[in-house]
């Protein structure tokens, strides 16, 4: 097999869905105070400071002033592509590992006359992974040595203000506005050499940085009842403010037969963009008894399409299909100081019949407990999420299986005064 025929395998890695799913689906990560231990439900209201993320109208359920450090998470991340291609009955698999951390989400809630006002910040979400793989592919005449390295880093910073007010005894409304700062950086390098012909080399190196600034608006309504609380939250698509980034790519090919080919692209301080889609969430909290609380949320993300480089220097279109998510969690109060939690969620892929690929299906489970004293509440929980998707093989017939795994723990602390 000619070395250039295998270059398509290497180039294909730049089009893997390696950008973190979390940037577009933050609900798979623990955010808030009590909400993470109930599978990220909270639109129906949990009397938690995490309402700033899930439904700001539910802030009216809080009494007095609250300060919380919550949503702390340290997650292990695994990403696998099996196989990316099949050549001469040999499967080429790719695996990467990394971690996701949310050091602290800070939330301050204060009563001002008839209003509940809140300040919140996510400082910041940090996601990164590293993948390195080597293949040796034998053909009838030669052996190809293939090496691929990819390093990925992503940060998401949120800082915002919330306000909520009661309409009457049962109904309230609220809104949150966030400044959203997103950064991702990728460094990839792919090389192929023919072992029997020393000196041959095909190399493709790529480095890109994107750093846009956006505004995001949440608005919600909430109804408090005796046995059932209800909530509705709407999120706007992120409103692009500005953004810059860099892009560098180097291509080199020497097969010792044809002329050496070299291509180089170097762009600095170009306009860059990142958008998160619009979302609608409905939720309910059921209180069947004094010791039990069950929360359920259903969310829908709208489809979105945009150019990461809007000024046209590069053609890099990000297209997000619509998706929905069902989650449910429960709280059981063992005594006045200890409560236990468990929950799960499912995010199915919406697959079109004419397409040969589908976005990942996500299944998540959580469990944890809460310790309560006079002024302090501390939460500790465990989190696991598994995502599976498909797409056509780069070379060969059949499908490529994509697998994402998240595993970790989270901690929340709340002080009321």
Secondary-structure blueprint:
Elements: H1 3-12, H2 51-54, E1 66-87, E2 90-102, E3 104-112, E4 115-138, E5 143-166, E6 171-194, E7 201-223, E8 228-235, E9 239-254, E10 261-271, E11 279-286, E12 292-301, E13 304-307, E14 317-320, E15 323-333, E16 338-347, E17 358-372, E18 376-392, E19 399-416
Antiparallel strand pairs: 1-2, 1-3, 1-19, 2-4, 3-4, 4-5, 5-6, 6-7, 7-8, 7-9, 8-11, 9-10, 11-12, 12-15, 13-14, 15-16, 16-17, 17-18, 18-19
Please give the alpha-carbon distance between the first and last residues.
Answer: 72 Å
**Bulk shape:** elongated
CATH-defined fold name: Porin
CATH architecture: Beta Barrel
Parts with pLDDT < 50 across at least 5 consecutive residues: none
Number of strands: 19
Structural class, by secondary structure, is mainly beta
User: Which CATH class applies here?
Assistant: Mainly Beta
Helix-strand string:
HHEEEEEEEEEEEEEEEEEEE
Biggest pleated-sheet summary: 17 strands, antiparallel
Number of domains: 1
Helicity range: under 10%
Number of helices: 2
- Let me know the CATH homologous superfamily: Outer membrane protein transport protein (OMPP1/FadL/TodX)
Q: From the alpha carbons, calculate the radius of gyration and give it in angstroms.
A: 24 Å
How much of the residues is beta strand, in percent?
Answer: over 45%
- Could you tell me the mean pLDDT? 85
């Amino acid at each position: 097999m000619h070395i250039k025929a295998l270059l398509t395998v290497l180039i294909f890695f730049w089009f893997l869905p390696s950008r973190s799913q979390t940037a577009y689906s933050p609900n798979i990560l623990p955010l808030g105070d009590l909400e993470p231990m109930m599978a990220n439900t909270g639109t129906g209201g949990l009397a938690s400071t995490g309402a700033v993320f899930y439904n700001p109208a539910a802030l009216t359920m809080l009494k007095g002033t609250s300060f919380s450090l919550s949503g702390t998470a340290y997650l292990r991340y695994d990403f696998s592509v099996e196989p990316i291609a099949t050549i001469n009955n040999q499967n080429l698999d790719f695996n990467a590992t990394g971690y996701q951390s949310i050091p602290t989400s800070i939330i301050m809630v204060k009563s001002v006359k008839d209003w509940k006002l809140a300040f919140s910040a996510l400082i910041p979400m940090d996601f990164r992974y590293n993948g390195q793989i080597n293949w040796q592919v034998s053909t009838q005449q030669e052996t190809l040595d293939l090496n691929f390295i990819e390093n990925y880093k992503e940060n998401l910073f949120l800082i915002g203000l919330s306000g909520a007010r009661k309409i009457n005894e049962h109904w309230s409304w609220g809104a949150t506005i966030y400044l959203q700062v997103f950064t991702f950086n990728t460094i990839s390098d792919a090389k192929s050499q023919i072992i029997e012909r020393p000196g041959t080399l095909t190399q493709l190196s790529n480095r890109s940085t994107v750093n846009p600034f956006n505004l995001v608006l949440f608005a919600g309504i909430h109804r408090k009842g005796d046995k059932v609380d209800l909530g509705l939250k709407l999120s706007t698509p992120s409103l692009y403010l500005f953004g810059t980034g860099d892009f560098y790519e180097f291509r080199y090919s020497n097969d010792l037969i044809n002329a050496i080919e070299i291509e180089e692209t170097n762009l600095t301080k170009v306009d860059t963009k990142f958008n998160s889609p619009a979302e609608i969430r409905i939720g309910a909290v059921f209180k069947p008894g004094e010791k039990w609380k069950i929360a359920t949320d259903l969310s829908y993300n709208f489809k979105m399409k945009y150019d990461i480089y809007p000024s046209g220097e590069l053609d890099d279109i990000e297209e997000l299909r619509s998706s929905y998510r069902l989650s449910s969690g429960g709280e059981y109060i063992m005594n006045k100081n200890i409560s236990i939690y468990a929950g799960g969620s499912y995010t199915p892929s919406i697959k079109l019949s004419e397409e040969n690929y589908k976005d990942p299906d996500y299944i998540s489970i959580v469990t944890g407990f809460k310790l309560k004293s006079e002024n302090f509440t501390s939460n500790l929980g465990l989190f696991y999420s598994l995502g599976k998707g498909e797409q056509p093989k780069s070379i060969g017939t059949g499908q490529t299986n994509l697998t994402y795994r998240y595993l970790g723990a989270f901690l929340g602390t709340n002080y009321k005064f």
